[in-house]
Amino acid sequence: MATFLYRLGRLAFRRRWYAALIWVLLLVLAGTGAATASKSTNNDFSIPGTEAQAAFDLLEQRFPGQTPDGAAARVVFKAPDGQKITDTKNQQAVEKAIAELKGPQVDKAGNPFETPGAVSKDGTVAYSSVSYQAKPQDLTDATRDTLKGAAQHGRDSGLTVEIGGSALQSMPEGGSEAIGIVVSAIVLLITFSSLVAAGLPLLTAIIGVGIGVSSITALAPVLDLSTNTSTLAMMIGLAVGIDYALFIVSRYRAELAEGREREEAAGRAVGTAGSAVVFAGLTVVIALAGLAVVNIPMLTKMGMAAAGTVAIAVLIALTLIPALLGFAGRKVLARKDRKREGVPAAGGKPNMGTRWARFVLRKPVWVLAAGVLGLGAIAVPAASLQLGLPDDGAASKSSTQRKAYDLLAEGFGPGFNGPLMVVTDAAKAKDPKAAANTVVDTIKGMDDVAMVTPAAFNKAGDTATITVVPKSKPTGTKTEDLVHAIRDKGAKISSDTGAKVLVTGSTAMNIDVSQKLNDALLPYLALVVGLAFLLLMVVFRSVLVPLKAALGFLLSVVAALGAVVAVFQWGWLGGLFGVEETGPIMSMMPIFMVGVVFGLAMDYEVFLVTRMREAFVHGERPGQAVVTGFKHGARVVSAAAVIMISVFAGFIGSSESMIKMIGFGLAVAVFFDAFIVRMAIVPAVLALLGKSAWWLPGWLARILPNVDVEGEGLQKQLAQTVTRSDDRDPDADGERKLARV
Question: How far apart are CA 75 and CA 404, in angstroms?
């Protein structure tokens, strides 16, 4: 592989205009596709194979035209202090506001004074349920303005009016991505001491992300991609795009420092560092594409889209970077090195990476113990992990959605914000109405039930819906127990009456998602870690090094989950990260972090340890190989980690709770993995293992392909080429004859 990439790097360097033009054309094509594509996106969250989804699908079939996945809103009215919402003046104000809720997309707006249970027992709070004939993302601005205007007119009459529900769902505000890019630029400038060298990774990363995100935007209407898909692709694409380019440019500068010609330096940089980029990118792609095993369509699409952006980043690093290096000339070097003729002076005091590696080699047990115990302590909160899906209760306290949520909880009880929908499929029942009444009576006798509505049948009379309001809040364990209890009783009712009982609704969907993700976590972990373990065995031609890499990853990801729980669930330092409300961790977070963090963690393993492997293959002792790896790689890996952390941290400012949590989780995970696992635990373990770290059974060595990541085969081929050139050189031939005389 190193030989092929060497030739590719030289070709891109020589044909730099063609390479650059191809990528510019791809960017223009993707941008044009995004600009002309429909702006509609799909935020539907389906979970095939679960009871909640089966009930939802049944409702779509048996209640045609009701758009069960359509937008909905709850307009909540509260009377002024000391007054009742049923007072004549207040009632007229409520009815006037509701009368304004008209439009082509509005299905119906309920009158709370004509709807049973829509006025609180104390008479201070009432709500109107508004349903729409379009999905939340398809609502027009005019429809939303009408909803907001009606609420404002109610406020003008002296009432407190707030709006909850999916009708106000909109594109989330982005995080401070620009801050991450600025920090990346500063780190690159400090690392390279050259504006040109610092600008290349940023330029190529932006081009790669532009192509990736534009392609996602163009394909969103066709593939039903959610609004978060492009945000995730941008987040990961920026991080890996900058990092991959950083390693190529750094190796190119090192080759120039050894006196290589520019084209030769570009070829060798792509042949060596480019091999590490390819395998690092493969681990990320495997981890992201592996999310498909969870069988949640939205998660699968997000993973595939992000994996595609990573693949683009790899291709850009291998082709566009050497092309741009051809344009840059010697300006990629620091000013002092550009003025110096020939090879820059060697020597001087050891750099920080060298000094740190030597310290670890002297105290490997202490460093290993400190790293493992420290991450273990941070991981402790992960034992208290509670999973859930965000609702209006997790919104900002200043938002109208959160205020509406609190008003409903105040007036109707905490469970009112998470009602359960029990669907009775009575198509095979002898007496559908009797079967539905049996379900109602059974649920009324259960614990933690605040209210049960009468069964509402469809036109065919074979399916009924029953709304159940729990006493506990939607994310409470008692509510989860109630869902399981209804399902258990439903099995008996089904055997007695022939009617099938299904529980759905956002709360039940939440419970099913959490269970499905928990069940998929271990198989997913085994798949991703297993495939990456095999890949790393091919890269390092070792058994213990990939094993150590996998165990180190598990330690860092559990520690990162512990930090997420401490901040977002317990509220520690929540104000610092803009967490206004604590609650359960998003159900997708653990499995998502396993996938993404594993891929990113292997980046640093590949980049740092391949340099050690390269030194070991070229004859250095195991301990000295560790020092050499840190001497050449520690500064660059540290810079890459800081860049990735800053990019992810920039998304903590997003208004979308999922993006905020993912940004924080990935930032701390990269910090733990890069600076504790890879920079401390890895050299300590390698120091203790010594030569056995690179042991590979003979039978396995014969089976595994030799991909030559460290460039040993490339070095031999180049050496032979030089020898043959000397043989054809008359001057060299004359010198050999003279030497024989």
Answer: 8
**418, 424, 425, 430 alpha-carbon torsion, rounded to 10°:** 180
DSSP string, 434-462: HHHHHHHHHHHTSTTEEEEPPPEE-TTSS
Two structure tokens written together for 131: 């349903």
Architecture of domain 72-168: 2-Layer Sandwich (3.30)
The answer to whether the pTM exceeds 0.90 is: no
The 10 Å Cβ neighbour count of residue 356 is 19
Name the token pair of 270.
């792509």
Name the residue with tokens 């945000």. 231
- How would DSSP label each residue in 396-415? -TTSHHHHHHHHHHHHH-GG
Q: Which tens digits make up the pLDDT trace of 336-349?
A: 776 665 444 445 57
Planar angle of CA 405, 407, 411, nearest 5 degrees: 120
Q: How far is CA 225 from the centre of its chain?
A: 15
Tell me what percent of the chain is helix, strand and coil, each rounded to the nearest 5: 70, 5, 25
Cα–Cα–Cα angle for 504, 395, 38, nearest 5°?
75
Burial class (CB in 10 A: 0-12, 13-18, 19+), 420: buried
pLDDT at 343: 45
Query: Token digits for 724?
Result: 């043959």
Length of the chain: 741
H helices present in 541-621, as ranges? 544-564, 589-617
Contact between 418 and 507 (Cβ < 8 Å): yes
User: Contact, 418 vs 400, CB < 8 A?
Assistant: no
Backbone angles phi, psi at 556, to 5 degrees: -70, -35
Contact criterion met (CB below 8 Å) for 539 and 83? no
Of 320, 273, 223, 451, nearest to 17 (Cα)?
A: 320
| CB proximity list for 297: less than 8 A, separation 6 or greater | 46, 48, 224
Listed residue (457, 396, 412, 460) closest to 129, CA to CA: 412
Task: Identify the CATH number of the domain defined by range 371-396+524-706.
Answer: 1.20.1640.10
Instruction: For 75, list phi and psi in degrees, rounded to 5.
Output: -95, 115
Residue 382 backbone zone (phi > 0: left; psi -120 to 50: alpha; other: beta): alpha
Tell me if domain 1-36+175-348 and domain 371-396+524-706 are identical in fold.
yes
Residues in CB range of 533: below 8 A, 6 or more apart: 546, 547, 550
CA distance 365 to 362: 9
**For residue 198, which of 255, 254, 246, 234 has the smallest C-alpha distance?**
246
Domain ranges of the chain: 1-36+175-348, 72-168, 371-396+524-706, 711-741
The closest of 653, 666, 543, 663 to 603, measured between CA atoms, is 666
Do residues 268 and 2 make contact, with C-beta atoms less than 8 angstroms apart?
Answer: no
Q: How far apart are CA 610 and CA 176, in angstroms?
A: 34
Mean pLDDT by 10 residues, the chain (741 residues): 86 93 94 79 68 88 70 91 92 92 86 88 92 82 90 92 83 59 85 87 92 88 76 84 89 85 89 84 85 83 90 94 90 73 55 90 94 95 83 76 90 90 89 91 90 89 91 86 92 88 88 84 83 82 88 90 92 82 81 79 79 82 90 85 85 76 89 92 92 88 75 63 52 40 30
**CB of 645 within 8 A of CB of 670?**
yes
Cα 388 from Cα 475, distance rounded (Å): 7
Strand order in the sheet with 106-109: 106-109, 125-132, 72-78, 160-164
Yes or no: is domain 1-36+175-348 CATH 3.90.1300.10? no
Q: Is 207 exposed, middle or buried (0-12, 13-18, 19+ CB in 10 A)?
A: buried
